[in-house]
Specification:
This protein has 59 residues and is mainly β. It has no helices and six strands. It is flat, with a radius of gyration of 12 Å. The model has no long low-confidence stretch (mean pLDDT 92).
Length: 59
């Protein structure tokens, strides 16, 4: 699933399944994550995000 959003706190590491490439997302980051990913919280701080959804995202 595709995600677009803004990170309000914490550190989320997104890993692309096929390539293994990892991208950190942290407080203050706007992000766009393509399908085919996994993610994990790094550290002890809670991750809080706002996810944006375009029209027609849910049939």
């Amino acid at each position: 699933m595709h995600h677009t959003g803004y990170c309000m706190s914490g550190l989320l590491v997104v890993r692309m399944v096929e390539s293994g490439e990892e991208t950190p997302i942290t407080k203050g980051d706007f992000f766009e994550i393509p399908p085919g990913h996994d993610a994990y919280v790094a550290g002890n701080e809670r991750v809080e995000m706002i996810l944006f959804e375009g029209p027609g995202a849910h049939p």
